[in-house]
Amino acid sequence: MQGISRLPRPVLFTFVLLALVAPLIAYPVFLMKLLCWALLAASLNLLVGHVGLLSFGHAMFFGSAAYITAHALKVWSFEPLLAVLLGSAFAAFIGLVGGLLAIRRLGTAFSMITLAIAQLVFFLALRAPFTGGEDGIQDVPRGKLLGLLPLANDTTLYYVILAAVAFGFWLIYRTVNSPFGHVLTAIRDSEARAISLGYRANQYKLVAYVLSSALAGLAGSLKALVFQIATLTDVSWTTSGEALLMVIVGGVQTLAGPLVGALIVVSMQNYFASFAEVVLMLQGAVFILVVLLFRRGVVGEWQAWQQRRTARAHTKT
Amino acid sequence: MNIFDIPASALIGQLLVGLINGSFYALLSLGLAIIYGLLHIVNFAHGAQYMLGAFIAWALLEYLGIGYWWALLLVPLITAGIGIVIERSMLRRLHGLDPVYALLLTFGIALLLEGAFRLKFGATGQPYASPIEGGIKLPFAFLPAYRVWVIVFSMVVCFATWWFVERTRFGAYLRAAHENPALVRTFGIRVPLLLTLTYGLGVGLAGLGGVMAAPIYQVNPLMGSNLIVVVFAVVVIGGMGSILGSIFAGFGLGVVEGLTRLLAPDYAGIVVFIVMLLVLAFKPAGLFGRGDH
Questions:
Q1: Where does B70-172 show beta strands of DSSP type E?
Q2: Fewer beta carbons within 10 angstroms: which end of chain A, N or C?
Q3: Phi and psi of A46, rounded to 5°?
Q4: Residue A234 Cα to chain centre, angstroms
Q5: ipTM, 2 decimals?
Q6: Does A97 contact chain B (CB < 8 Å)?
Q7: Residue pLDDT, tens place only, B47-77
Q8: In chain B, what residues touch A101 (CB-CB under 8 Å)?
């Protein structure tokens, strides 16, 4: 499969319209949570689906960016855009350092290494002087965007978050469909062949990894802005696992998959909010079911069904 | 008596704690290595299966009055049986697919098990009485007998497993099936059965670790997930799929962690991960590894 197929125009149009009127129908904070998680899942999907690297440690980017943004907003009184950019940049930096080491190993070893590095980041977040230990950083002010637009109102903030997340998705879409993205796909399908064609596979993978970590960081920074809090949960391996669950449930290698996956997983969390154990069990069960029964995920299965239908229509005529 | 200004009793104490933790690192990474070696999958449920072993030992004592020594025999068999069922009913279907699917599946199993036990038992631990009381009194330290037993027994189990895989006929089949499964099948050896038994063996080792851990740490639903990430780092340091690598890295890192707790307590929680990064930087295949396939 080459890149992500372009969404049909009516579907894209409906999406945009839905996103714009959504705060009238649903609770804006829920929508913003959904968007942040969808961006995190999409950043992971870029690696899992298009580079074939199963990163098990995306919480380290999400969480550390949330800490940096929260600290910049609260202690340094940064302007929100700058604080968010700083968070993403920090995540990209961790991605560069971690990536240099992790990229050297293939397949499942890569997953284990990213998980272990993420655990290191978790311990650092637990111990670092500015992270507030078990309490995290709380009561983060949202500030005024560019010094002009106050973000305290949830509906105002929703449109800002929507714009930022849409930018993230657009960037992923452009990357995957660029010549660079095609080389990544070639490396995923056969690394040896890509190398024999003269591509430095590891450099390509590293750039993709850093890009993905920056986007995961963007998601974490936005999350800190929305919920006005950065905690250890954001850097914990359960967050990495949830992001992965969203990718798998929604469907790897699809643009809408992470959004659908996030919708399913976040709804599940909200519905059983007071039963953490039940959420854990459900997530486990969903992992098992999806891996055993529909590995293409919701969006992937839908696309396959559509293709079968058009194919049948063609044979009839 | 002082060595580098550190009281000998503290040194011995931390060495002992380090060796105890190392025993579990070694037992668990050994099971992971065996599974990875033949099935090429990372068994993410390994920590949960270790926790399951501890809970089965606890339940045997609580409900049936079966004590530690019988549990030491029964629990590995029961957990191995559970492993065999998991392999037959689920992992088998993923054979030939990208190994990340098996990793995700076992991750799902881990979440399901941990969630279920937390629902039933909460986050608090269940006590399990130590089967051996007393200890050995050295001039400057006291060694609890049960802890000494755990260190010695886990070393025996580790090297027996190594001997089994590297020196017996069955082990030779395993290694041959790892190199070239198609060829081994033409010799009339049932490779799918080997895969099932190997997974069972790995899970049984995790269960055995659980029984041995029960009297030391409390029997807690979180005990597996706390341990598994460290064990992953140990496996990467030792070299993926290397049996000797996981034994030496397991005990070695336990000791390194213990000494770090003495010299720089703040770094005790992360020293294993720092060692992992150093190993990746200078010897990416791990200390005993032969690189990726």
A1: 135-137, 142-144
A2: C
A3: -55, -40
A4: 13
A5: 0.87
A6: no
A7: 999 999 999 999 999 899 888 999 999 999 9
A8: 277, 280-281
